[in-house]
User: Which sequence fits this backbone?
């Protein structure tokens, strides 16, 4: 029995049917060259041997004396968590993303450990996917991506036990008892922040942030415009995903004097601008993105440890280079502030960690005056090629959380030489999400043209797109 | 805009993650002999033409002034409701039922019309299934089964529009305005009953039922024993299903002087007795089943209109013939009472309609003193063979609702010469549900042996069983 931190438990408290609080990873694999027709069956039979789960995959939440606690599930049933699916014909990425859209809209059963692992067969050429869904109370996006990568092998010859059967140092034993002092301090900060934020909530903390920003109000507006993304959401989801060559982003960054992160934000900004233009809903003021920043060191314990910065996406600017320059200015000022203000940083930790619960909690009147318009999260991923029982991992896509008044979330995961963009949205308030993939293409080409970079031949690195 | 009756809206109020309130039908089809490899694709393309839905499939619930109302979904999105799935290898009924178990545990999105239609390909020999899930607030099990049957064709040559695009007289226009006077009276009764039952609730209505039963307490005990089925439930489900020849049930009934309904109850009783024996949890007192009885006439409007009887399942008796005789006595007494007591009938209507919300509402202390132990529902089905765009309907299985303190529900649907048994249970509190299928087999054989009826050769009509 182990109490959840206030931040982690907030993900349970704030969860509703319209606002499930899980994150997921969609991985696409190529079978090994010598794989027979029973490769998936063998993989599942192999995984099926691991009938018990290690932390955190054996923990279910129980409410005791008004506090959420983790307890070990004594009736752990692997058959419930491990699920075999097949794509219907014609088995394109389109069918895969339709299934992921549905799976991501389903609430998990809180009577069991809060994760589900799907093996999805039926892509052309024997390719297959895994979609692994974990509650945000159990892991944040960064630790989720990290343990998923850790669970895979670095060579085709090696096989490891499945995710739930591996020992992850950050979750071994009683995470909180073994946590370093810094974490305890952070948790105390989160508790302090949580106390002030959770019930009722005004913009008190934001006022503190505002004070903290000094005289640079122009670069960091806390008053974001109203957009179609900042509305109440429904319980259904649409997921769209596509991979791009990291080299293209790097070339743009080198030519424009920007980091890959800034280029990524600029490309999202271009896509968002186009989407809103087509929807006839582009506001005159620039969109503001909330960009999570990990505070995690390699040796830290599990749980949620992130800070944030707010980036001006300059969607009001037509010129893609001016837009990128404005973003660079905005994020570098924000990073300066983060580095120089430990007190703010601690508070921001608490705010950010619960930010996926919606800016309404922070501002009280999100629709009229959203704090920010969209979350854009760049999750670090593995650089080297990874394998699952000999199958090569080809593509990695994060699937994050839309929330009340934040109907769209863009999360990007690096893997090897590519960046996997995952757009997840409320299916009702963000119509035609799949068009965002075309607009992302266009935003990259637009920057390349402006910088006189020759775009690659029409053959994209991974032109796998779908609604 | 149309207000829900109190009974229908109660299904929305009482729904939780652990207690979803939808019913479903699982149909299994054989493709026509001349079907090419694209039969399913053509079926889906055909259905995909019907982009708008008719009542009740275009209605979404909205809460106005504290009352649930139906309103037309102006942004109806067929692509959300119509879903294409495929069975993973080896594509047995086992894999089908594993998928249905999962789908049935998911809450629907209340921002949309409360139904989902799945076409599931990949059974051997080109067979396929449909699993159609509808919220109990939209239709009860009987009208659901009826409109599903109505939506199919009586000849292989005929094709009809899909379920959601057909006009059903019972839902045309404003159901309540066009309802006959009898329905208005029933609704008023339901409202009266609902007012007394819904908040707080004592056993007041049950006391009235007790008074109504006169001196025959021995045959209709309102105090059912504690069993493993009468516990709090989780949000995960297990579905098990199997079909039997109606002729076998008829032969048993003729030999023993019992109706098919009574034989069905006796077979369930035999299976339940064996299951509880193996679980070392067979109570000394007999289990009590709640058996819904439809009050619906052919011309009635939609909604929920059922009454109930409580049947003594005589699970304390080892002898299968004595058990059957006791069940016959119990149900005939209950029917006599139903027929002679119009006032009781009206109240029972209200009670029954919300009974799936759990006997705890009726008794207040269901765990110690359940009112009844299990719901066994025999849904009338079509006698003639039905077709879907030329594909023959082979098997029909209802999938009903486990609730708090009623962790197991058995619903049986007649179709042609067979009876489809659908066992649906909380996956956590009713372990090894699939064994119930073996015990059902044994219960039939036990009765046949006792009555010296020669059982059919080992080849069963539809020996499709799985967990």
Assistant:
């Amino acid at each position: 029995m182990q109490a959840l931190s206030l931040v982690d438990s907030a993900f349970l408290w704030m969860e509703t049917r319209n606002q499930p609080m899980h994150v997921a990873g969609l991985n696409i694999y190529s079978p090994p060259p010598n794989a027979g027709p029973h490769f998936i069956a063998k993989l599942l039979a192999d995984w099926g041997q691991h009938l018990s789960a290690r932390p955190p995959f054996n923990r279910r939440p129980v409410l005791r004396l008004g506090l959420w606690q983790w307890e070990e599930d004594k009736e752990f049933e692997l058959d419930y968590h491990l699920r075999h699916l097949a794509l219907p014909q014609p088995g394109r990425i389109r069918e895969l993303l339709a299934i992921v859209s549905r799976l991501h809209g389903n609430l998990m059963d809180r009577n069991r450990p809060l994760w589900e692992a799907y093996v999805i067969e039926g892509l052309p050429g024997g390719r297959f996917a895994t979609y692994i869904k974990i509650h945000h109370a159990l892991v944040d996006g960064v630790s989720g991506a990290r343990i998923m990568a850790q669970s895979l092998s670095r060579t085709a010859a090696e096989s490891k036990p499945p995710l739930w059967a591996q020992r992850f140092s950050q979750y071994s034993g009683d995470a909180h008892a073994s946590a370093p002092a810094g974490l305890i301090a952070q948790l105390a900060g989160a508790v302090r922040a949580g106390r002030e934020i959770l019930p009722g909530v005004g913009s008190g903390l934001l006022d503190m942030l505002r004070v903290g920003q000094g005289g640079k109000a122009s670069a960091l507006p806390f008053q974001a415009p109203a957009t179609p993304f900042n509305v109440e959401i429904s319980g259904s989801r649409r997921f769209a995903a596509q991979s791009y060559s990291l080299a293209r982003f790097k070339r743009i960054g080198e030519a424009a004097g920007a980091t890959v992160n800034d280029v990524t934000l600029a490309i999202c900004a271009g896509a968002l601008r186009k989407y809103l233009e087509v929807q006839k809903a582009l506001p005159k003021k620039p969109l503001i993105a909330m960009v999570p920043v990990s505070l995690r060191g390699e040796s830290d314990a599990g749980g949620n440890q992130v800070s944030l910065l707010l980036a001006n996406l300059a969607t009001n600017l037509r010129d893609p280079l001016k837009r990128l320059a404005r973003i660079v200015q905005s994020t570098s000022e924000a990073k300066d502030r983060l580095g120089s203000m430990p007190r703010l940083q601690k508070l921001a930790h608490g705010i950010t960690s619960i930010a996926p619960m919606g800016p309404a909690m922070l501002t009280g009147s999100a629709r009229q005056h959203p704090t920010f318009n969209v979350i854009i999260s760049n999750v670090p991923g593995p650089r080297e090629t990874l394998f699952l029982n000999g199958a090569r991992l080809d593509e990695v896509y994060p699937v994050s959380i839309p929330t009340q008044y934040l109907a769209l979330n863009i999360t990007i995961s690096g893997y090897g030489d590519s960046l996997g963009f995952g757009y997840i949205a409320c299916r009702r308030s963000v119509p035609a999400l799949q068009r965002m993939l075309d607009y992302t293409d266009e935003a990259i080409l637009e920057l390349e043209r402006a910088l006189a970079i020759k775009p690659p031949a029409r053959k994209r690195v991974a032109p796998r797109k779908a609604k």
